[in-house]
Amino acid sequence: MTHLQKLKVPLIKNAFLDEKNTRRLLADFILGEEKLSMGKQCFAFERAFAMKQGRKEAILFNSGGSANLAMIQALKNMGKLKDSDKVGFSALTWATNIMPIIQMGLNPIPIDVDRDALNVMSYNIKERLEKTNLDAIFLTNVIGFAGDLCNIKKLCEERDILLIEDNCESLGTELPGGKAGNFSLASSFSFYVAHHMSTIEGGMVCTNDSEFAGMLRITRANGWDRNLNTEQQIKWRKKCQIDEFEAKFTFYDLAFNFRPTEITGFLGLYQLQFLDKNIKTRENNFLQIEKIIKQNNDLILLERNHITTLSSFSIPVVCKNRVLHDKYVARFIDAGIEIRPMIAGNMQKQPFYKKYVKKIFPLPNTDFLHANSFYCGNCPDYTKKELAIIISCLENKK
């Protein structure tokens, strides 16, 4: 199939759930709203999302990548992380998990994943700690799956390791101990169009720590206190001896401008009502396809026994060797199915990483996935025909 041929199964079918109504309502909102910079729609979405996720605080950003960078900056502002601290990260991840660690002057330490779970498990962390002490771990919950988060949380508490999660790909995934994204100090989420819910661009951080939430709001918007509650504003102004007038242009710590717009807030509030159905449909799609994978000896069945609800971000295909990988990649391409590598593979192989980080660690499981896996989409609006095309490509045809 050439790049000019039309895809039969695209990675993304629509920008939104309830696409037609969302676009119509968005147009009406833009035409009728006087103020489109961050305001009441954003704050209402924060409250609704925090309640949905089961966390006390939610802070909205203009992207999930911005949310990640703001988390690291806020942790440094508060003294919870310092220059050159060793921060472990999931070796199978996305660039915006690693770049903030490097950009903030921290020392990135990759942690291998479990081949069959796609994620860092507690035993992977223990293996890394045998040779390298860690001050923090930035864990990625990969494409709807997750590691044994209860055990990881306990291990980090025992070792006094700061834990944060990137849950951008696993919104809605649940374990016996709770929702993915709720096992750490804070977690990030993404509302990019390819994710479980879309605000076009957009991201969120959820936390139960009000002090950290306040610092994130400072970090999100130039370093000022305008979006803090009254108690927090009084605290900062008293500490720095700032009066109410001067506070309008007073900047308390290092920050960015990562503010969302009211468009983000409006879309988030509207799309949130469809999230549960979306997650259920994605899980049902995955379970249907998993039955075919079980019958195919060319493929590796992924481990998910520790997960109670699988909010499937995409359909991962893990082959037993490179020859089989190439065979199935060709089969998917020929069938008109849009596919991607397994995120960014071994992050140590990325050009930016090799430029800025000199020490390379052995990561056999991540290397295996880098060489032998890929994924296709799992849109909630795939038709039976589109799912049948995916299933046909996964059957073991002699």
Structure description:
Helix 1 (19-32) runs antiparallel to helix 9 and helix 2 runs parallel beside helix 9. Helix 6 links the parallel strand 4 and strand 5. The chain has a seven-stranded mixed β-sheet with strand order 1-9-8-5-4-2-3, sandwiched between helices. Strands 10-12-11 form a three-stranded antiparallel β-sheet. The protein contains 14 helices and twelve strands. The mean pLDDT is 96. It is α/β, with parallel strands linked by helices and 398 residues long. The protein folds into two domains: 19-272, Aspartate Aminotransferase, domain 2 (3-Layer(aba) Sandwich); 275-394, Aspartate Aminotransferase, domain 1 (Alpha-Beta Complex), CATH 3.90.1150.10. The chain has helices spanning 19-32, 40-53, 64-77, 95-103, 122-129, 149-159, 210-220, 230-240, 262-272, 275-294, 322-334, 351-356, 364-372, 384-394, and strands at residues 57-61, 86-90, 107-111, 136-140, 162-166, 174-175, 178-179, 186-190, 203-207, 314-318, 339-341, 373-377. The longest helix is centred in the C-terminal third of the chain and has 20 residues, at 275-294. 41% of the residues lie in helices and 13% in strands. The two termini are 22 Å apart.
Note the main attributes of this structure.
single chain, 398 residues, alpha/beta, Aspartate Aminotransferase, domain 2, Aspartate Aminotransferase, domain 1, 2 domains, seven-stranded mixed β-sheet, three-stranded antiparallel β-sheet, 41% helix
List the helices and strands and how they pair.
Elements (H helix, E strand, L loop, with lengths): L18 H14 L7 H14 L3 E5 L2 H14 L8 E5 L4 H9 L3 E5 L10 H8 L6 E5 L8 H11 L2 E5 L7 E2 L2 E2 L6 E5 L12 E5 L2 H11 L9 H11 L21 H11 L2 H20 L19 E5 L3 H13 L4 E3 L9 H6 L7 H9 E5 L6 H11 L4
Parallel strand pairs: 2-3, 2-4, 4-5, 5-8
Antiparallel strand pairs: 1-9, 6-7, 8-9, 10-12, 11-12
